[in-house]
Amino acid sequence: MLRDPQATRQLLRLTAGATCLRQQFAAEMELSLRPDGAYADVRDQASKAVEIATRMAGVMHCFFQLDGDIDERTMHDAIALMRWHLEEYKRLFGDP
Question: Among 36, 69, 91, 95, who pairs with 41 as Cys (CB 3.0-4.6 Å)?
Fold first, then answer.
């Protein structure tokens, strides 16, 4: 896009399976943000987790030059990466 201003953008969509995983992750994150939840002490970062995981799935989809919509496996991998990131963030910046 930056090199070729005539290039067309590709709209990325989630498959039904990827959407289901995203919704499950969103529900899980919602619970974890409660005052007694797992990520209550890092709420600012954790509240962005679903959006960031979805964006990572899009980046992974493009990086690996996958065809079609973002599939369940790619979304699963992005969520797993986000979970790891949240645990590291919590370890470094969460309450002791």
Answer: 95
CB contact burial 56-70 (16+ within 10 A = b; e otherwise): bbbebbeeeeeeebb
Q: How confident is the model at residue 9 (pLDDT cuts 50, 70, 90)?
A: confident
Query: In 1-96, where does DSSP find H-type helix?
Result: 16-32, 43-46, 49-63, 72-93
Residue 3, classed as helix, strand or coil, is coil
The tens digit of pLDDT for each residue in 36-61 reads 999 999 999 999 999 999 999 999 99
pTM of the model: 0.91
